[in-house]
Design brief:
Number of domains: 1
Helix content: 25-40%
Structural class: alpha+beta
Number of helices: 1
Low-confidence stretches: none
Shape: rod-shaped
Order of helices and strands: HEEEEEEE
Distance between the termini: 59 Å
Largest sheet: 4 strands, mixed
Strand order of the largest sheet: 1-6-7-5
Radius of gyration: 25 Å
C-alpha cells in the first residue's frame, strides 16, 4: 500500500512539473526575445545619439575641427546611414534586422538641403556586437560640388 501511494505521488508530481514546464517555457522564450530586442534598440539609440552629438559639435565649430567617438553597435545592424529627416534636417538612421520597430533615427542640426553633407560610411558587422571608433572632421574643399561637409572615418576596435 505504501509503495503504491509513493508511485502515485511521483506520477502526479511529474505530471504537474510537465504541465508547468509546457506553460512557462513559451513565456520564458518570449520574455527573453523581448529583452534581447530592447537591448539591441538601446545600443542602437545610444550609438545614434553619440554620432549625432559628434556631428553637431563638429558642424557647429570651425572648419577642420575633429571629434572622435566610440560606441557599440548591436548584432543585427543592417545599415547605418544619413538620411533626410524631420524638420529639414539630416538624420542618423540605424536599421536592425528585427521584425518590427527595427529603425532607430535621430536628428542632427545639419540642414538636409545640402546633398551628401556627410561623406564616409560606418563599417557593418551584423553578427557581432561591435565597438566602433569614428572620427568626424568638418571639411571645406572648393573642388567639390558641396564644399562644406562632414567627413567621417570609421574603424572597428573590438567585436564580441
Amino acid at each position: 500500500m505504501r509503495g503504491q501511494l509513493s508511485v502515485e505521488f511521483i506520477v502526479i508530481i511529474s505530471g504537474l512539473l510537465i504541465i508547468l514546464a509546457v506553460v512557462t517555457m513559451p513565456m520564458y522564450n518570449q520574455a527573453r526575445a523581448d529583452a534581447e530586442k530592447v537591448s539591441k534598440l538601446a545600443d542602437a539609440h545610444e550609438a545614434a545619439n553619440k554620432l549625432v552629438n559628434a556631428i553637431n559639435l563638429v558642424y557647429a565649430t570651425v572648419v577642420d575641427s575633429r571629434q572622435t567617438v566610440e560606441y557599440w553597435l548591436p548584432p543585427g545592424v543592417v545599415s547605418v546611414s544619413f538620411v533626410d529627416g524631420a524638420e529639414n534636417r539630416v538624420d542618423v538612421r540605424i536599421e536592425l534586422d528585427l521584425e518590427s520597430d527595427n529603425v532607430m533615427q535621430v536628428s542632427t542640426i545639419l540642414p538636409s538641403t545640402y546633398e551628401n553633407m556627410v561623406s564616409g560610411s560606418i563599417l557593418i558587422s551584423s553578427n557581432y556586437r561591435v565597438l566602433h571608433r569614428t572620427t568626424l572632421r568638418h571639411d571645406y574643399d572648393i573642388g567639390y560640388a558641396q564644399p562644406m561637409r562632414i567627413v567621417l572615418s570609421d574603424e572597428i576596435i573590438e567585436s564580441v
